[in-house]
Amino acid sequence: MSRKDGVSRRDFVRSGSLVAAAFAAPSGVFSAQEAPSANEPIRLGLASYTFRDFNRTQLIGFMKQLNVFSLNAKDVKDHLPTDPLEESAALADYAATGIKLHAAGAIYFPKDEDADIRAKFEYCKRAGIGVIVAGDPTPETLPRIEKFVKEYDIRIAIHNHGPEDKVWPSPLDVLKGVKGMDPRMGCCIDVGHTVRAGTDVVQAIHEAGPRLFNMHMKDLTNFDSKESQVAVGDGIMPVRKMFEALITTKYQGFIDLEYEVHPDDPMPGVISSFAYMRGVLAGMGYPSFG
């Protein structure tokens, strides 16, 4: 296996202490609104879309196994329904198990209409969520969305979707789109789509700076192929360099694993991904928080 970021899978197997650090439960849990400290600058979370074929009870069970208690929730299965009563039941289940919701999405904005946009903000307000990961707003819709950002004090993180996305292929395109707008208008960097768009993901982190509100983490073995996704650490994504860039820019959000392959049995890859990321952080001298 190739070696990158100074840590390889083989390193994990050979070093018992690194394995222990990689799989250890977080030494504490931040609330969704609490900022990371200088001693624990990277927070790991989970995109619920990873477990899109599993219901909420199963999702909660998987998160307990992973020692991850920070969730980027999506209206898929019954993870975070848009119906207020069903949403309330979901929030009660998460609260009972100590899971904190810090973002929701991807949420789509197909209509440039107040009623449709307000419903999305109300959905997140009920959940106490401070970041909306927006999937497809058009440039023409942004001024209307900005109005609701100001009213609700909820940030918008526009998600880039790679070369197939004709509007937001790269986070650099998002930054151009929100330039001059309210500082709560920003981006969610999907690292896989970013590299497929030909953008240096480390550079994108630096350029986004305070407008980076969320990250979707994944790994690829080929930066030209969407189908080459593997567990984090098994590909060629510059994970340590990304973490270093996030620390340098004082990133305040979460790094949410979005493992999109093997949807019927994602846990092996998810476990491996969190082990690798925690191991990289341990090698940098930092604990990781779920």
Summarize the structure.
This protein is an alpha/beta fold and 290 residues long. The protein has 11 helices and 10 strands.
What topology emerges from the helices and strands here?
Blueprint: H1 9-14, H2 16-23, E1 44-47, H3 56-66, E2 70-73, H4 84-96, E3 100-107, H5 114-127, E4 131-134, H6 142-152, E5 155-159, H7 171-178, E6 185-190, H8 191-196, H9 201-208, E7 212-217, E8 219-220, E9 229-230, H10 239-248, E10 255-257, H11 267-283
Parallel strand pairs: 1-2, 1-10, 2-3, 3-4, 4-5, 5-6, 6-7, 7-10
Antiparallel strand pairs: 8-9
Helix pairs in contact: 2-11, 5-6, 9-10
Structure description:
This protein is α/β, with parallel strands linked by helices and 290 residues long. Helices cover 39% and strands 15% of the residues. It is built from eleven helices and ten strands. Helix 2 crosses helix 11 and helix 9 runs parallel beside helix 10. The longest helix has 17 residues. The chain is globular and about 45 Å long. The chain starts with 8 loop residues before the first helix and ends in a 7-residue tail after the last helix.
State the order of secondary-structure elements, H for helix, E for strand: HHEHEHEHEHEHEHHEEEHEH
User: What is the spatial order of strands in the main beta sheet?
Assistant: 1-2-3-4-5-6-7-10
> What is the straight-line distance between the termini?
28 Å
Strand content: 15-25%
